[in-house]
């Protein structure tokens, strides 16, 4: 599939490798996994552990206490000094959809010290955040490479976002910066945005 709202497999790989290069420079944990020779069989992956307020942890577990608007996510685990702060493990994957010709964001989160324990559900996220890009398109889906269940933003949304990044030198980063706030506060370091201006080192 080709067009203004798409990203080819070769473009995806070039943009992804540029993102990983910057990630390595700033120790941000993004890596490229899988078989790069087969379209759609390699993907970006980032795992992280943060600490969140007990109110947010309760909401993501399906309980909605008073004062939920005061939730916070602490990026540095060493900053979590309050007893009521709870650990949260997250895993974000960016894949390429052969059918749609766009990147697709998959993610999982667990209110726990360990991935796989006390998973966050689609319903809890949708109840917590009723507005913002992508939440109406969030669903549970099977990871096409790993074969496990993830939360997924439907690729139909990505086409429009990619089309709006036509001037970007790294459309993958521009797209990811748009959908990241909807994936449990996935943040991109400002250094990634240099890629959207300066190109991908294609020579």
Automatic annotation (TrEMBL):
GO terms for molecular function: Atg12 conjugating enzyme activity. Keywords: Autophagy, Transferase, Ubl conjugation pathway. The keyword Transferase applies. The keyword Aminoacyl-tRNA synthetase does not apply. One of its GO terms (cellular component) is cytosol. InterPro entries: Atg3/Atg10 (IPR007135). It comes from the Eukaryota. One of its GO terms (biological process) is protein modification by small protein conjugation. Coiled coil: none annotated. PANTHER family: UBIQUITIN-LIKE-CONJUGATING ENZYME ATG10. Belongs to the ATG10 family. This is Ubiquitin-like-conjugating enzyme ATG10. It comes from Fopius arisanus. The lineage of its organism: Eukaryota, Metazoa, Ecdysozoa, Arthropoda, Hexapoda. The gene is Atg10.
């Amino acid at each position: 599939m080709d067009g203004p709202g798409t990203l080819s497999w070769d473009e995806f790989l070039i943009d992804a490798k540029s993102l990983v290069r910057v990630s390595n420079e700033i120790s941000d944990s993004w890596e490229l996994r899988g078989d790069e020779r087969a379209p759609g069989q390699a993907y970006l992956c980032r795992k992280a552990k943060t600490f969140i307020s007990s109110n947010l942890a309760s909401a993501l577990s399906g309980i909605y206490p008073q004062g939920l608007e005061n939730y916070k996510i602490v990026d540095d685990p060493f900053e979590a000094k309050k007893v009521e702060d709870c650990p949260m493990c997250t895993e974000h994957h960016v894949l390429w959809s052969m059918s749609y010709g766009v990147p697709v964001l998959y993610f999982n989160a667990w209110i726990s010290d360990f991935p796989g324990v006390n998973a966050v559900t689609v319903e809890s996220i949708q109840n917590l955040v009723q507005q913002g890009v992508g939440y109406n398109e969030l669903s549970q889906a099977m990871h096409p490479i790993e074969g496990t269940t993830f939360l997924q933003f439907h690729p139909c949304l990505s086409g429009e976002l990619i089309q709006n990044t036509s001037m970007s030198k790294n459309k993958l980063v521009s797209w990811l910066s748009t959908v990241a706030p909807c994936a449990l506060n996935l943040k991109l370091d400002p250094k990634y945005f240099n890629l959207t201006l300066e190109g991908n080192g294609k020579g």
